[in-house]
Amino acid sequence: MRSANGSRNKTASRTGLGKARRRRYTNEKARPGGNAARQSPSSASTAVAAEQSGHSALDDIQGLAAGVVLVSLGITLFKAAGISTGGVAGAAFLLHYAASVNFGAAFFVLNLPFYALAMRRMGLAFTLKTLSAVAALAVAAELVPIAIDVSRVLPIYAAVCGGLLIGSGILALFRHHASLGGIGILAYFMQSRYGWRAGVVQLSFDLVVLALAATTMDAHKVIYSIIGAAVVNFVLAVNHKPGRYVPA
């Protein structure tokens, strides 16, 4: 009798264990990003490409165009108020204010070293879209002031509204698997690969650029520049979370 009971108990135990394993496997499959931690780099890249495959060429063109227009309007407000921002755009602003270098040209050239990372880590499609967006912004940043004459703007308005425009434009580019180069490429890569929030990564580098801006700009303009950069990164940190547009 004890032998029969022991046999039944062992059978029930194995059955219960099997059910528990099946439930755990089902839960892992159902959980968003449940298998992401076990994906290889190539699998992660494939997942990114697959997520983006829902966009047609026309979708990408209008998305990139909208993003470039929004960012160029924000940059126009920043330039009119004499303030800067972070990242490669901030470095281009520093050259523009300190040495009267053409902002668009400086922005394009400073972005060139980052395309190697984009090509190796983010793929050809991402690199070509980013290169197109950077080139378009370099031109738009010089053309918008011709179309719109902003002779006077309060620095706080330029910082907040310009930051919102730039942040929204970058979001549009991210949504279509592109960026504005520079630190944006690094931020996009760190989020897609490691799940770090793009806005947090961007802000860390922005603080370095803004610290350099403090050596060439008036104190009050540096403060408004910090506000503008904070608004840009706030928009990215809140709206571009891991798993929303790229795998967590």
Short description:
With 248 residues, this protein is mainly α. The protein has helices spanning 2-30, 41-52, 57-81, 87-99, 103-111, 115-122, 124-147, 155-175, 183-194, 198-213, 219-239.
Can you tag this structure with a few keywords?
0% strand; single chain; 77% helix; 248 residues
Tell me the major beta sheet. none
- Using DSSP, what is the number of strands? 0
Structural class: mainly alpha
Distance between the termini: 55 Å
Using the CA coordinates, give the radius of gyration.
24 Å
Tally the structural domains.
Answer: 1
Note the run of SSEs as H and E: HHHHHHHHHHH
| Strand residue content | under 5%
Quickly count the helices: 11
On the 0 to 100 scale, the average pLDDT is 77
Indicate the overall shape. globular
Helical content (DSSP H or I, runs of 4+)? over 70%
Uncertain regions spanning at least 5 consecutive residues: 1-7, 9-13, 28-53
